[in-house]
Recover the amino acids of this structure.
């Protein structure tokens, strides 16, 4: 499945400053692994050392937080949009 | 509902609200009777406080501890060149009174800590967060939840902004439902490190002022349960759902945080509510 991944500013440096990139996979885990293979280092702060998702960067499938779907096992449909969203504090 | 009573000056000043459907005299009366606290007189705090003053919020408070620096003026439109070096609160109060001399404007020249946040928040109906660091954001979230006050949230980084409304109590999400705890040091850069697109806080701050006015007037639909994401560089608006987390440490079924926390400063960001 091909999906669009929307990247926050802090991760764009890993992806030639692109705001949107493509990735493939049947589950969120596969999509993130594919993303990491294309842009090494990009998921370092998304996936924790224990293999789960960090809690200070959220991941959404379309408009839903993947924690309320299947977390990393969330199934992906062709054309979905995955958004990565870090906590931001500036004012 | 009692007939709204306005002075002749108020009828003229707020005429465009009073004739507006969904605000009207009754809505303007609510704004005049309301009190709102704006945290930070910086990038976000500037448009928030200026629009709320203009709208006739009866009592408008501003909290900041910092001084105006020339590098602030690229985005902090509440301050002018002649204010460089002054306390931000002093400059803010003066300019807000110039925008609307008929409302009460209160300055709180202080940093927010667990020891003073209740005292500062007391006496305000709505809290609007325009601070620039994680420790104060978590402090403000927890204090508003514990005090039962609505919180209008906004934050920015470089070209991107986020905004939403957090209502107190269970069944509605708070900031910790979204991000349960601050990020570890070094994982998220600070505003000062990354720079900020000057007009960005104008967009997000104006959205926060909009939400505060809607909370007070009771009209329309707020961002409660929805996180609005804005990318100025690509002019992209997006919305994602924020769900109440039954395991939230503050507003969940079995809260594990029941007292205010003063987080250590991190991410290279000093305690600078701006």
């Amino acid at each position: 499945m091909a999906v669009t991944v929307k990247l926050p500013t802090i991760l764009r440096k890993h992806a030639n400053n692109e705001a949107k990139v493509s990735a493939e996979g049947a589950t969120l885990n596969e999509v993130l692994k594919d993303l990491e293979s294309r842009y090494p280092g990009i998921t370092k702060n998304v996936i924790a050392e224990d293999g789960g998702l960090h809690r200070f960067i959220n991941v959404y499938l379309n408009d839903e937080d993947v924690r309320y779907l299947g977390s990393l096992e969330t199934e992906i449909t062709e054309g979905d949009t995955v958004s990565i969203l870090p906590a931001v504090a500036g004012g | 509902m009692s007939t709204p009573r306005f002075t002749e000056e108020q009828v003229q000043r707020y005429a465009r609200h009073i004739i507006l459907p969904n605000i009207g005299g009754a809505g303007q009366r609510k704004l005049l009777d309301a009190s709102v606290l704006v945290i930070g007189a910086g990038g976000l705090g500037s448009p928030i406080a200026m629009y709320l003053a203009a709208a006739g919020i009866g009592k408008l408070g501003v909290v900041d501890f910092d001084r105006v620096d020339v590098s602030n003026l690229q985005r902090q439109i509440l301050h002018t060149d002649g204010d460089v070096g002054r306390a931000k609160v002093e400059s803010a109060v003066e300019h807000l009174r110039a925008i609307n001399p008929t409302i009460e404007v209160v300055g709180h020249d202080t940093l927010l800590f667990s020891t003073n946040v209740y005292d500062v928040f007391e006496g305000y109906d709505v809290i609007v967060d325009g601070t620039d660091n994680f420790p104060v954001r978590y402090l403000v979230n927890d204090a508003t939840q514990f005090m039962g006050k609505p919180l209008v949230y906004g934050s920015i980084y470089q070209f991107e902004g986020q905004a939403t409304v957090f209502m107190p109590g269970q069944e509605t999400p708070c900031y910790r439902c979204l991000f349960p705890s601050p990020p570890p040091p070094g994982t998220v850069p600070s505003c000062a490190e990354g720079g900020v697109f000057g007009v960005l806080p104008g967009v997000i701050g104006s959205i926060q002022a909009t939400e505060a006015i809607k909370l007070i007037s009771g009209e329309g639909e707020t961002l409660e349960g929805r996180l609005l994401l804005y990318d100025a560089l690509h002019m992209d608006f997006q919305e994602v759902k924020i769900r109440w987390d039954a395991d939230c440490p503050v507003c969940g079924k079995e809260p594990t945080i029941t007292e205010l926390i003063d987080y250590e400063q991190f991410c290279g960001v000093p305690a600078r509510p701006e």
User: Anything to note?
Assistant: Strands of chain A lie at 2-6, 20-24, 57-61, 64-65, 81-86. The first strand of chain A starts at residue 2 and ends at 6. Chain A has a mean pLDDT of 95. The interface with chain B takes residues 6, 8-10, 19, 45, 55-58, 60, 63-65, 68, 83, 85-91 of chain A (CB under 8 Å).
